[in-house]
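Researcher: Go.
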Amino acid sequence: MNTEELVARSAQFLDIMKWCTPFIILVCVFVFIRLRVGSAGFVLHRLWALLGGKKDFVNPTLQKEASKLDDFEKIKYVTGIRFHNLASVTTTLGWLKKHEIGLEELIRVRGYFDRVLPHFHGRFEKG
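Model: Structure:
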C-alpha cells in the first residue's frame, strides 16, 4: 500500500465518521440518561417538547398529571435514584426533612440509600 492509497482510505474513513459521529453521540447520551434514570421517559418527554413545540395540555387534569410525571422523571435524573413512583419520592423527602438531611447530601451517598423504605444501609452515618 502506497502513501496515496493510505491518504485516500483515511479520507474515506474520516468522511464516514463525520456523518456517524452525531448519531454515536446521541446514542451514548440516550444510554447514559437511560441508565441514570432507569427509564426513557425523561428523554422522550424532552424529545416531545422539542418536536411538538407546545408541551402543555389544554385539559387541566391532563396537565396536572403530566406535570407530576415530568417532576418524577426530573427527580430521578437529578438524584440518580430510581424511585418507583412519585409517592416514594414524597415519602423520601419527608424522611429527609424529619432527619434534617439535605437532598444534596443524599445525592452524594445514594449508593447507601434504600429508596423503598427510606433509610440508609451499610456503614453510613450522618456527620
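Model: The chain has a mean pLDDT of 80.
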